[in-house]
Design goal:
Blueprint: E1 11-22, E2 27-35, E3 42-43, H1 48-52, E4 72-75, E5 80-83, E6 86-87, H2 88-94, H3 97-106, H4 112-123, H5 130-133, H6 145-156, H7 169-195, H8 208-217, H9 228-240, H10 248-257, H11 263-274, H12 282-293, H13 299-307, H14 328-344, H15 349-363, H16 365-369, H17 377-387, H18 394-415, H19 439-448
Antiparallel strand pairs: 1-2, 2-3, 4-5, 5-6
Helix pairs in contact: 2-9, 3-18, 6-7, 6-11, 7-8, 7-18, 8-9, 9-14, 9-17, 9-18, 10-11, 10-18, 11-18, 12-17, 14-17
The chain binds carboxymethyl coenzyme *A.
Amino acid sequence: MSNSDAKAAAVESAEKTFTLRDNTSGQTYELPILKGSEGPTAVDVRNLYGKSGVFLYDPGYTSTASCSSGITFIDGENGILRHRGYAIEDLAEHSDYLDVCYLLLHGELPSPEEKTEFDYHITHHSMLHEQLIYFYRGFRRDAHPMAIMVGVVGALSAFYHDSTDIADPQQRMVASHRLIAKMATIGSYAYKYSKGLPFIYPSNKLSYAENLLKMMFAVPSDDFEVNPVLAKAMDRILILHADHEQNASTSTVRLAGSSGANPFACVAAGIASLWGPAHGGANEAVLKMLGEISTKERVPDFIKRAKDPDDDYRLMGFGHRVYKNYDPRAKVMRNTCHEVLNELGIHDPRLELAMELERIALEDDYFIERKLYPNVDFYSGIILKAMGFPTNMFTAIFAIARTVGWIAHWKEMLSEGTLQIGRPRQLYTGERQRQFATVDIREHKQSRGWSWLWGNSKQD
Ligand code: CMC
């Protein structure tokens, strides 16, 4: 079995079950326990409702595995992130973004021949249909790039009909290549459009990261040399954001895909989900926060606000649903940040501010007790800013990088051959059945106070 089509090897543990007891009826239920290859086990509750008539209540999925997957492993307690078994630190250090894309999609690192072929496919899919370019003109010049990306990526399904048949593995693969390849072009065009600058076509001679920098920052009237240190940093940023198992946007893509929707529509849904400040929008929020704090002396005030239970304020770039330790991506990002600032000779006071914030927070009981550490977004904003990216492009860069993760999960879900629509249930807390009243009676009710229309419970 090739890894690409390998369903995560979740096996039922023969010797152990999980017993659930309903104290109202005295009934007990023996539930199978599923074991993955690593990490916590899961109780298989798929038949629980059928047997017991009760649902499980877990709105934020804090204790719920929504699927099994063989792509990415996270051990949040120990700060471990691996793709297909390879440590993120090794991938960031020794591979390039398209290597990681291939790995996520196919389950193995590519051989030299496979790498050449894969790079060729991605490179040769990076241009956009010319007519698609007119889409941009429909947006206001000050549109957020993520708004443009949601629209343009969704529109891809109207242009590439020959890769929307999700039942055909070949079409799925072509759609995967197209999405990965075109995303950098779509994102950088969103930026160019906002500036009123001409779009820069991708170049087949450049790597993915180099191309992205060129499409972002080159102008037709001037030569453009890609700085190798910045290209390496860009490549690392892409690698570090490539996948992160069942995060909100990936789960959105899976849920959208579970209805049989085409991959372009699913990825557009993923971009929309990523946009929120609790997810991909956090790197943008970190920079805004550092700007607000502005001096080291003000750091304690902001920490105090973040700790105040009566204040909604949070330190952006801190905390993670899964990591209860230093985010391994943040460590790599921190080093890359120093490399980029050194290369560019930039002395960014925000970096000093960030390090001071990190130092104080890591020594503070509030953050220690809640295991709140810097996450990947804490440093990425400073690097991207130094490289010349405007703040509103930060989340767009995340979306470009994460596209392969979304696609790998979508492809994995479809290749399992047992596609089942995702359809959560709910705990209903609304009105019980009540009598319908026509609008004329409703007016009477309000003007004359006919409270009997609400039913007995609300009668005086
Ligand atoms: N600053 C201050 N307090 C925090 C923070 C923070 N950044 N994050 C969590 N807490 C507190 C929270 O108030 C709560 O305290 P208490 O127990 O007293 O009520 C406790 O820590 C647990 O928080 P939670 O909201 O239940 O945790 P969560 O797992 O639902 O939230 C999170 C995870 C990432 C949404 C949250 O930590 C957060 O909002 N962080 C800031 C935004 C951010 O940096 N997001 C990027 C995440 S990494 C990129 C990605 O994967 O998308």
